[in-house]
Amino acid sequence: MPEKMTKETSLTCLAELAADARRDAEAAGMAIDEKGRSGSFFQEDHSVIFEHMLSKGLEIMDIDKARKMYPWLKEYEWTLVDRNKDEYTKMADERPNHGYFIRALPGVKTSFPLQACLYIGKDGLAQCVHNIIIAEEGSQLDIITGCTSKRDLSSGLHVGISEFFVKKNAVINFTMIHNWAEGMDVRPRSGARVEENGVFVSNYVTLNPLKTLQMYPTARCVGKNAIVRFNSIIRGRGKSLLDVGSRVLLEAEGSRAEMLARSIAEDEAQVISRGHMVGSVPGVKGHLECNGLLLSDKASIKAVPELEGKSPDIELSHEAAVGKLAPEEIRYLMARGLDEDTAKSVLIRGFLKVELPGMPEELRKRIDAAIEASSKGL
């Protein structure tokens, strides 16, 4: 059974969620039975309705509760994301609606992932959350976050401020799965700080249509041999406008970065895939890869890779490609008994199912399941 709840928390288990909320949460990676999980957090609209810790040395809770428990948290808040960056960060600062706090104590490593879900169930609602994630020295956090909404919403806004702190010799593997309604506008604003020998891996997946998405997380490698990996799998559908990218600042000797983006655009969707690496000191390495697959004459994909070198002794590289399914590959599969639609679906799944080094098996299974479910509609 869950630990003692806060006043606002109203569920004793995730199975008590309404049927539609439970369905949408599962589609965004949540394990409703909590099997194979170290802890859970669920926020609906402006209310935190469930939080549950299952493993010692790990914390997952309402950010407002964490602020009261830990006065030192104010030293972290708004240090990686500028509260005055744009109208959305200002809104999140002025009109906060909870969010989560996740921390691994020094030396503690997750046996199973923690999970968090941010859900919108009311039409026209603006949800502004602030999340802080800290992996203390020598620890490891594996996290699955699902951001989702009721399917029939005609409009809504989600603004998510997330700040990640990877201490010395620590690891954060963070997977975010978006499962929004078609009328949603989504504005994540994220920053990460990676210290010596730290590793920050961010995996982002969105496969369902939404109105607009704009995100451009920035990670700073401030410690020697720090590593950052950004991986994104994006499917633009309907009339979605998706402006997605990431940025890494390599500011310490031996730091490395990898960015991998796979984008599909169909119907009338517009996808912009951005990537920016800055090498500021000698001995840093980075590679950026943006590949797009167009499935409609009315859709578009724009790849914007950007490399910036500020020292002569650096290695930064990129590759970008946008194209369509290869006719010869379709014919090859059809010659082996597949019909044309099935052959295309197989190729699309293969395009999206990329190897993501360092990803825990549980997170890989969740991403594969999301791709498989989405591909049924192709």
What does this entry look like structurally?
By secondary structure, the chain is α/β, with parallel strands linked by helices. The protein folds into two domains: 14-328, no CATH class; 329-378, no CATH class. The protein is built from six helices and 20 strands. A ten-stranded mixed beta sheet has the order 2-1-5-7-9-11-14-16-18-20, with helices on one face. Strands 3, 4, 6, 8, 10, 12, 13, 15, 17 and 19 form a ten-stranded mixed beta sheet that branches. The chain starts with 18 loop residues before the first helix and ends with a helix. The model is unreliable at 1-8 (pLDDT under 50).
Itemize the secondary structure elements and their pairings.
Elements: H1 19-27, E1 39-44, E2 47-53, E3 58-62, H2 63-69, H3 87-94, E4 100-104, E5 114-120, E6 126-135, E7 140-149, E8 156-166, E9 171-179, E10 184-194, E11 199-206, E12 212-215, E13 218-221, E14 227-236, E15 241-250, E16 256-265, E17 270-279, E18 284-294, E19 300-309, E20 314-323, H4 327-334, H5 340-352, H6 361-375
Parallel strand pairs: 1-5, 4-6, 5-7, 6-8, 7-9, 8-10, 9-11, 10-12, 10-13, 11-14, 12-15, 13-15, 14-16, 15-17, 16-18, 17-19, 18-20
Antiparallel strand pairs: 1-2, 3-4
Helix pairs in contact: 4-5
